[in-house]
Amino acid sequence: MSQEQILAYRRPDGSVGVRNLVAVIPTCGCALHAAERIAAQVEGAALLHYAGGCGETEGDTALATQLLSQYGRHPNVIGSIVVSLGCETLDAHDLAQRIAQGHAPTELLVIQELGGTVKTVTRGLELARQMRAQAEHLEREPCPVSSLAVGLECGGSDATSGLAANPAMGAFSDLMVAQGARVILPETSELLGAEHVMTERAASTEIAAQLLQTIEACEHFLKATGEDFMGKQPSPGNVRGGITTVEEKALGDVLKGGHTPFVEVLAYGQPPSRAGLSFMDTPGNDLASVTGLVAAGCQIVTFTTGRGNPMGNAIVPVVKVTGNAHTWARMGDDIDLDASPIISGEETVEQVGRRIYEFVLQVASGERTVAEIMGHAEFAMLRQGPVY
Amino acid sequence: MVNALVIDSRDMVGVALADLSAGSLVTFADMNGQRVHALEPIPFGHKVALVPITAGQQIIKYGASIGVAACDIQPGEHVHVHNLKSVRGAKQ
User: Fold this and answer.
1) Which residues of A touch B15 (CB under 8 A)?
2) Range(s) of the domain holding residue A279
3) For position B1, which CATH number holds?
4) pTM for this model (two decimals)
5) Residue A277: helix, strand or coil by DSSP?
6) Does residue A308 belong to the interface with chain B, where contact is any CB pair within 8 Å?
């Protein structure tokens, strides 16, 4: 197969970005308002809506520091403004230093040192404006599709997800893998019951064992809560849409991964080390899952939805696909592509997979998704421990 | 007129491709002479039993188990949370 190209931005560290955004990163909830004000007033400035950073476990603070730094070094980001209060647990200087090791400049604003919200926001606006003005000189150039990493998310699933949108996304995944791209299947809790499908496709016995261990650990963690999965996996909306059990949801969900071998099992937010299809251990919560995919370097996330989901992401385009003709007719403003012709027999899974592929290449080259046009910029951090 | 889909030849349930009213013939590709009438309304996207299923039996869709029958289920019955229970997700 010939190597296909996108038009994207080559960064000094060799990575390839599809957008030029300034990340505005609060290091605690007390700095969130000032960060919000900075991001709101500069086009192309993206707020990472993080409200932790204080009174949480060391594990959660360490994970947040890691993920926020990965966002700051992300290829879609051309500069970062870290906004700190000055007394929080999360080490803002450490975070800013970690981001500075990447390809883009970073600036640290400390509210208590600058003397309050007004001075911080004023300085932040100057910096965000300068960073964005410099980005105007950057030009897109041909880059291979293999420079892309793409996450395969789903949310608001219904019975059509397993019949149309997820199989089509699987065909899209196969096309991306054939081009040498990195593709990541997330959402561990939504795969209980589909282990056999995944282990059959593991590239090695070690990867098969890692897949099983990861899903078992998730099941153990969830059961330790003493709560029933019903109402969470599947969600009430999934159930109304015809999905009865987590096993049924999993067997429809796993189709997003297509037919290529699983070459790697990744921790939450861990960048893949090789081309091909990887599995990432993320929660089924869509915002937290997408945050993990983006932290790992995905420049684009594709997202199937049966019942309709409007979400995007702070720094990457999210391409949404539905297999439900009613949802497409009712909620098409929030969805990019219609996979329902698979169910009506007007298109094959492969044809819709090819449409998703071609649209993703256009989005990588600058075309905006409906979520971007609508200003969707979601961000949520995974948190597992208590808050003190 | 096709109004249901059977994903895998091993499946014990079909998926309604339209809202099926009680009494309607469940029509899908490769019926092989099988005639199942919906015994009750089956909403779009929901499952209808195609074969007799006994309580405790694993129910197959996508060619794999999606849980166990909580009671006996007749062909044509709606299969959902009232008669299909998760093995993996149930409270222990």
Assistant:
1) 159, 163, 242
2) 144-373
3) 2.30.130.110
4) 0.96
5) strand
6) no
